[in-house]
Amino acid sequence: MNKTLCTYGLVLIMGMALIGMPGCSKKSVQSGGDSQATQGMAKGGSSGSQDSPKSGVGSFPDTGVQSSGGGLRGLDKNPSEERVGGGTLLAKVDPSSSAGRQMDEIRAEQAASAAAGLRDVLFAYDSWTISEDGRQALTRDAEWMKSTPSAQVKVEGHCDERGTSAYNLVLGEKRAKAARNYLVELGVGANRLSVVSYGKERPSCNEHTESCYQQNRRGHLVVKTGK
Amino acid sequence: MTQAKLISALVGGLLLVAGALGILESGAADVFLEATRPDFQKISLGVVGIQNAGGPDWLGGRIEEVLKKDVKRSLVFDLVDLPSLGIKVHSLGTGMESGARAAFKQAAENGVSVLVWGKAGLKEADKEADVNVEGFVYDTGSDEVIGGKRYAGSPSVVRLMAHRFADELVFRYTGEPGIARTKIAYVAEHGTARELFVMDYDGYDARQLTADGFLNLMPRWSPDRRFLVFTAYRNRNTQDIDMIELATGKRWTVISLGGLNITPALSPDGNFLAFASSHEGNSELYRLDTRTKALQRLTVNPSGDLSPSWSPTGRELVFVSDRGGGPQLFLMGSDGSNVRRLTFEGDYNAAPVWSPRGNWIAYVCRMRKEYKLCVISPDGQKRMQLTTGPGVDDSPSWSPDGRHLVFSSTADGKSQIYMINADGKDIERLTFEGTHNSAPSWSPAS
After folding, report:
1. What is the predicted ipTM?
2. Residue A81: which of B146, B152, B238 has the nearest Cβ?
3. If you measure CA to CA, which chain A residue comes closest to B322?
4. Contact list, A197 vs chain B (CB under 8 Å)
5. What's the Cα-to-Cα distance from B34 to each of A193, B22, B122, B355, rounded to whole Å?
6. Is there a contact between B330 and B316 (Cβ–Cβ < 8 Å)?
């Protein structure tokens, strides 16, 4: 078992322990416009139960600034020797097996999605409206899902490289949810669909051209494999 | 020069440039008055040289080169070319020799305020494991060698020695810690994965921090420089906010509420984490008390709210909301009160970052279909565009002294990381390797 998994496990335990704390149970105002959206959303892997989302808060170290001046000692007429060390700030990265596992899982998902013949839904610039072509693609996807009742599908929202990383994550989520909502309208069970936004961070095409941008502005349907 | 004077001088310089280029689009009358104030003067400084005293051939030259670039980037000093003034002395010893006196006189006559020189060698002959560097500083005003530094360490840290010396110079003349030892965290592509890296502020000495093979996005520093907070994807399906300790590489999840959890930003005192989360439906802003774990929702709106950035006092936040259609910048109290819109020009304004000096907010503005860097004053009165031309500019981040920004741009094709002065001058490319480098975040000063 590698270190990363251990760390996650530890965090999870800490997170669970926090459920009972008074600060965590503080209820927030419910959102207005998009509240149905959480229904079909996947809660990641083994995280806390559906009805106590505030369990998802981990531990925080004290990160306030303890001292200033940054170790500068000033110029000195008779300077004493200062030893300069390197590499103390940054640990060497721990080569984890996670990268290999991720690659294997991505390949398995791609193979399953290709076998299912799932189609992407494409979007216009700055837009998350499902076009007529998009409706047709999603109608075919919905038919496959109804004929394959065991399948769980993840709808990924993607954007082209224009715009900021951060806003494109929000835009990508809007696209994924628009596609998910249309599939639900077509009769696919919301509990079989999850959404995730990758913004402009996982482009399928890397050229700076409009045809490439169009390929990247997509809702991409992926058949979930494994757990 | 006092700190206040420097700040006003910097602003004056900024406005002068903006006015000259005619790119100011609002508040022009106010600006013009300020631009006529000619009180901004850098301190002229000459680097005589770092003499090689028995070390490897590259040693003195390397230190001298790093030091000169640091001095120039500080924007506190005006790096003068000594040979063009007829000052050719290679070493001034300890500054007591007669040759040194002649050079000091020459410098004073030519308006050079500070002379810097030194030597670099091995601590013990034949022992390359230990490098010795000495630097001296002469000040024309007081007409004396005001002091020096002596550093020792392995040859692998000579850049750091030069950075330290440069920061001492800035500290001596401004009382500020300087930026030469600051770091930049960023995202680099490895295959289809995006991993976190940290490099020196000048683009050297990049180190990889994560290796999980998927997406790690938009890192931000803790105020004490010991940690980064960033967006990660657990099992590729759920977005979390993770934290990593730089010294140990230890990493853990701090926010896993479900849905989109992005754009974390720790308050200047480290007591709050502001972030965007869609776990209650659409993307909203939240504030977590990092001590009590109390979670407070700051925005209530059916549109997307994201990208909070703290004012230096911690009392206000600037953020992005598309409640009016396209993304625009808004301000609010850090408790969610008193929300008001800041940007009105253009249909896409995003990725705001509040200057550590408080006087500017940098952001990405869409101008003539291109995504460029803009700055706006928090009162909305002054605004200017810093970059022009093709390419998508993204993720501006301020240097801790407020005199520079680092950002990513596709101006040269692939996304790479660049530094630019806060007045839009002196663009310097920092990354050259790899297919994609993005989301730079400048560390606080140490």
Report:
1. 0.88
2. B152
3. A167
4. 239, 260
5. 58, 15, 52, 20
6. no
Is B308 an 8 Å CB contact of chain A?
Answer: no
Find the closest chain A residue to B151 by CA distance.
A82
Q: Which helix (H) or strand (E) holds A16?
A: helix A3-17
Distances (CA, A) of B419 to A212, B79, B84, B399: 28, 19, 28, 9
Q: What is the per-residue pLDDT across B155-179, written as a single tens digit (0 to 9) for each?
A: 889 999 999 999 999 999 999 999 9
Spatial distance between the Cα atoms of B394 and B410, rounded to a whole number of angstroms:
9
Domains annotated for chain A, with CATH where assigned, are 118-223 (3.30.1330.60)
Would you call A7 an interface residue with chain B, using a CB distance cutoff of 8 Å? Answer: yes
Q: Report the pLDDT value the prediction gives residue A98, as an integer from 0 to 100.
A: 79
Nearest to B272 by CA among B300, B244, B295: B295
**Token couple for B245:** 């300790």
- Lookup: tokens for B326: 């396209």
Do residues B383 and B430 touch, judged by C-beta distance below 8 A?
no
Give the SS3 label for residue B18. helix
Which residues does chain B have within 8 Å of residue A90's beta carbon, measured at their own beta carbons?
Answer: 198, 207, 209, 246-247
Sequential DSSP letters for B363-419? EEEEETTEEEEEEE-TTSS-EEE---SSS-EEEEEE-TTSSEEEEEE-TTSS-EEEE
* From-to residues of CATH 3.40.50.10070 in chain B: 43-174
Q: What is the pLDDT of residues A172-221, one digit of tens each?
A: 999 999 999 999 999 999 999 999 999 999 999 989 999 999 999 999 99
Check: CB of residue B288 under 8 Å from CB of residue B295. Answer: yes
Measured distance CA(A53)–CA(B142) in Å, rounded: 65
Question: How far is it, in rounded angstroms, from Cα B290 to Cα A60?
Answer: 6
Looking at the domain covering B43-174, what would its CATH class be? alpha beta
Q: Where in chain B is the domain with CATH 2.120.10.30?
A: 183-442
pLDDT at B305 over 90: yes
Q: pTM of the entire structure? A: 0.85
DSSP 8-state symbol, B208: E
Is the separation of the CB atoms in B154 and A86 below 8 Å?
A: yes
Decide if B250 contacts B231 (C-beta within 8 A): no
Instruction: Tally the residues of chain B.
Output: 446
CB atoms closer than 10 angstroms to residue A210: 10
Query: Edge to edge, what strands does the sheet with B328-333 contain?
Result: B305-310, B316-321, B328-333, B340-341
The CATH class that applies to domain B183-442 reads mainly beta
